[in-house]
Amino acid sequence: MDSKNKYQTSKNKDFFQALSHAWDGLKIIFTKENNFKSHLVTTGFILVAGIIFQVGFNNFMWLLSACFLVLNAEVINTLFEYLVDLVLGNKYDPLAKKIKDVAAGGVLLTSLFAVIIGLIVFSPVLTSIFKAFVNS
Ligand SMILES: Nc1ncnc2c1ncn2[C@@H]1O[C@H](COP(=O)(O)OP(=O)(O)OP(=O)(O)O)[C@@H](O)[C@H]1O
C-alpha cells in the first residue's frame, strides 16, 4: 500500500512510516484533547521548576516519570473514548459509561500519584517558602 494513501489499512512498510503515523496520533491528541494540553503544560512547569530549584538527578527522574505516566494515561483514556464512540456513536450503553469512567479513573489515579511525587520532591522548597511566609 502506498504510504501517501490516506485510506491505508495494511501494515506499515517501514519504521519511518510507522513513526509518521505515531506522530499523527500525537498531533490528534494534542489538537483535540484539552486535558492532554493541560497535562503537557503542567509537565513543562513542573520540569522547569525541578531545574530552577535544583531538585537533583534522581528526584528529577521521579518528576519526569510521574509526568509521562499521566500523559500516557491520558492517551489510553482518549483511545478508549474513541473506541467506544467508533462502536456506539451517540447511542447510550451502560457498559460504554463504565469503560469511559474507568479509563478516566486511570488518569485520576495516575495524577494523584504525580501529585504525591511532586509534594515529596518539592517538600524542602515548599517548607522553606512556608517558613519564609510565617517569619515575614
Ligand atoms: N456512549 C455512551 N454511553 C454511556 N455513557 C457515555 C457514553 N459516552 C459518554 N458517556 C458518559 O459521559 C461521560 C463524558 O463522556 P466523554 O466522552 O466526554 O468522556 P470524558 O471522560 O468526560 O472525556 P475527557 O477525558 O475528554 O474529559 C463519560 O465519562 C461517560 O460517563
Automatic annotation (TrEMBL):
Cofactors: Mg(2+)
Annotated GO biological process: phospholipid biosynthetic process
Cofactor binding summary note: Mn(2+), Zn(2+), Cd(2+) and Co(2+) support activity to lesser extents.
Annotated binding of a divalent metal cation, by residue: 33, 81
Entry keyword set: ATP-binding, Cell membrane, Kinase, Lipid biosynthesis, Lipid metabolism, Magnesium, Membrane, Metal-binding, Nucleotide-binding, Phospholipid biosynthesis, Phospholipid metabolism, Transferase, Transmembrane, Transmembrane helix
Residues the entry annotates as binding substrate: 18-23, 74
Keyword hit for Membrane: yes
Gene Ontology cellular-component annotations: plasma membrane
Active site: 74 (proton acceptor)
Membrane topology, as annotated: Multi-pass membrane protein
Organism domain of life: Bacteria
PANTHER family per UniProt: DIACYLGLYCEROL KINASE
Record protein name field: Diacylglycerol kinase
Annotated source species: Fructilactobacillus lindneri DSM 20690 = JCM 11027
